[in-house]
Amino acid sequence: MFQIAVLLLAAVNVCYSLDNGLGRKPQMGWNSWNHFACHISADLIKRTADLMISTGLAEAGYNYLNLDDCWAEGRDSNGDIYPDPISFPGGMGPVGEYIHSKGLKFGIYSDAGSMTCAKRPGSLGYELQDAMMYAKWKVDYLKYDNCNNEGFSPKERYPVMRDALNKTGRPIFFSMCEWGVDAPWAWAGDVGNSWRTTGDIDPSWKRTMYCLDLNEPLFPFAGPGKWNDPDMLEVGNGMSDVEGQSHFSLWALMKSPLLIGCDISEMSAATKEILLNKEVIAVNQDPLGVQGHRTSKPNPTGGELWQGELSDGSIAAVLFNRNDNTTMNLTVSFVAGFENVASAPELAVRDLWLHKDLGKFKAFSALIPPHGVRMLKVQPVTDAGLVGERLMSSTVLQSATYLVN
Predict the structure, then answer these.
(1) Is the full-model pTM beyond 0.90?
(2) Is position 200 annotated as part of the catalytic site?
(3) Active site residue 145
(4) What pLDDT was estimated at residue 404?
């Protein structure tokens, strides 16, 4: 048995937010890159807008529809950027109008360099001109990449676009995508609404865990208006359903942006169920804005406990089995810190994937498959037997890991 005691601490916000009124909760939506890469068009975007409505994704909170790289073709004689005339024959204005007609928000992509990562026109030196064009198209969101930066540091380049967006008079969510190379969490709280903390994700379990582990220790820097971004979701792009559920649970707990990256016209029933889990989404969108994180010490068997405080005083907890081959029995005890175990209160436990109240416990155990999770909401019980009140920051959750052959 491997056993550790862990303490849930209140997150400490150490930087100031960008004052554009946006991003009070992590952004939710869809982005074209992970599945379609450069194979995008006006027809694809309009079809995706329709599907976001018909599948219930928009109702669940996914409201940004974001074009990634490859929409731009060049600049005209005045330096104005224009889209690929074959893929977007009517221009970008009608695309935005269609997205808005569905009650969704219109996101676009550029780069803080001379060219984008796909060698399309970048915005370096054209920040204000491009920002004004985005405002003309009624853009609501800008993902701003970091390729071909001509040797200028992110600290020099990203504030220029922030100032340009502010000058448009249109609130535009500013998603910084500088890959964490210059520690944006330490300085970008007054520059962007979110910042990438990692390189690009891909559908492999190894890469997803790489992004997870880079993002996890940065929890003190996140909060309303300023979010750590370990990249977009790969749910539905080839990982197993168990892995997709774990990926979604941990991104939600970390208050990461929930940006769908699959072809939603081809979603399996399991993928749709994962992405539409309103109880897990509620953890991500909790107004307190505390990024959950790993509270167990390194465990060679692969069992982990993650947790984060919620605005109603409860704790969202994830029991996570990172082991590649072995099912584990993971236990969370709620009695650590009490000299007399008998006097420790029972806590109400709800399973956010089963959508079921499991009862009152002093300890909770679950068998978890390789790469799997159990996501729980843990809350005090009043003298009258009702769920309520708050778990204090001194509440200790204790985890134990047992291997099951």
Answers:
(1) yes
(2) yes
(3) yes
(4) 43
